[in-house]
Structures are given as structure tokens and as C-alpha cells.
Write a structure and sequence with these properties.
Layout (H helix, E strand, L loop, with lengths): L4 H10 L3 H13 L3 H5 L6 E2 L4 E4 L16 E4 L2 H15 L22 H15 L6 H13 L4 H8 L4 H8 L4 H10 L11
Antiparallel strand pairs: 1-2, 2-3
Helix pairs in contact: 1-2, 1-5, 2-4, 2-6, 6-7, 7-8
């Protein structure tokens, strides 16, 4: 249920449109849910600050933020640059509040829907040979953060969880190797007080 960097790169490289690439880059970079991405408005992205705010609201495409309260997540400069390229090269003068919209299908300019994303997933699976689901990006994000020793409370807040138990039990795909590296970094296997 987690993706390797090579698999994510293959998915990104298989995207024919900047809009599609932005979606996967955003899911990888922020760990947001696909419904949260589909509900994004331009006002939710603060480019200068490098932040994205997830705001629960009613959406025309029925996309939803599962968490009942807003949260702000840091976004990398690369994703902000990709967003700017998408606006300039594909989005153009379209008058819509939504970030992700139909640009090649009907109804043109309307918010992108869950079925459209899953059609894209099918095409990307065929193109890459990677069997994945959009939610795997969320699991991968959480696991990457935990492997980089990000405090569980921070990971839980970024994911919008009300409990760190949810984060650890469902999203923390840590291995024995991860535990060994953490123990070695903490000096656990050196400087023993007791000779065994």
C-alpha cells in the first residue's frame, strides 16, 4: 500500500497533461485525499507562502474533505511551479474557482470528478504497469515522514487525523529495518550499561 519513488516517478512521467501531473504531484507531496484535491479552489493555494489549505465545504463535484476542520499543509516549490505552469499552459482564461477541472472532456470547465480520476488511474496503470490507487499516495506520504523521524503528532496533524493512533495504525507502514535504523541512530546498540 505504499509506492516507491521510482513508481511515483513512472506515474508522473506517464501523465499526458500538466493537470494530471499536478494531481499526482500534489497527492505525493502533501498526502491529501483525492477528494480534498478535487475540492481545491485557487484561493486554497498560497504560492508565495508555499502552503495549501484544506477547507471543508460543499463542492459541485461532490468531492469532500473528510476532516471537519481546515488544515494548512506545506507545499514544495516544485509543486507550486507545476501549478503555475498548469495555469499558464492548460488552464488559461477559464473562469472557475476549482483547481482541477475538465479541460478536454465534457462538461468543459466543470470541476473534475471522482470517476474522471479513476479513468485516469486505469490509463496510468496500463501505461506504467504499477497497480496503485490514489490513496496509496497518502499512505506513502505518512510512511516517508515517519521514516524521516517526523514526530507522529506532526504527521497526524498534516493528515487531518483526530487521533495519532489512526496515523500510526493505518498509515505507519514501518518495517523492522526502519526500527533498527532508528535504534542505531539513537545509539541503542552501542555503549551498553550491562554486558550481555
Amino acid at each position: 500500500m505504499i509506492l516507491t519513488a521510482a513508481q511515483v516517478q513512472a506515474i508522473l512521467d506517464a501523465c499526458a497533461h500538466l493537470r494530471d501531473r499536478l494531481l499526482w504531484a500534489l497527492l505525493w507531496d502533501t498526502g491529501i485525499r483525492v477528494g480534498e484535491a478535487l475540492g481545491l479552489r485557487h484561493e486554497d493555494l498560497a504560492a508565495a507562502e508555499g502552503e495549501l489549505t484544506i477547507t471543508p465545504r460543499l463542492n459541485d463535484n461532490r468531492a469532500r474533505a473528510k476532516s471537519g476542520r481546515p488544515r494548512t499543509i506545506p507545499v514544495s516549490p516544485e509543486v507550486i511551479r507545476l501549478y503555475a505552469d498548469y495555469l499558464h499552459e492548460e488552464y488559461g482564461d477559464l473562469d472557475s474557482d476549482y483547481v482541477f477541472v475538465n479541460l478536454w472532456g465534457r462538461p468543459f470547465g466543470r470541476p473534475w470528478s471522482y470517476p474522471a480520476v479513476y479513468d485516469l488511474v486505469v490509463r496510468l496503470r496500463q501505461a506504467t504497469g504499477v497497480d496503485f490507487d490514489p490513496h496509496w499516495c497518502r499512505h506513502t506520504y505518512a510512511t516517508r515522514l515517519l521514516r524521516k523521524s517526523t514526530p507522529i503528532e506532526v504527521v497526524s496533524t498534516l493528515l487531518g487525523h483526530s487521533s495519532i493512533t489512526t496515523t500510526l495504525d493505518i498509515y505507519g507502514h514501518l518495517s523492522v529495518e526502519d526500527a533498527r535504523r532508528a535504534l542505531e541512530a539513537a545509539g541503542w546498540f552501542t555503549g551498553r550499561e550491562v554486558r550481555l
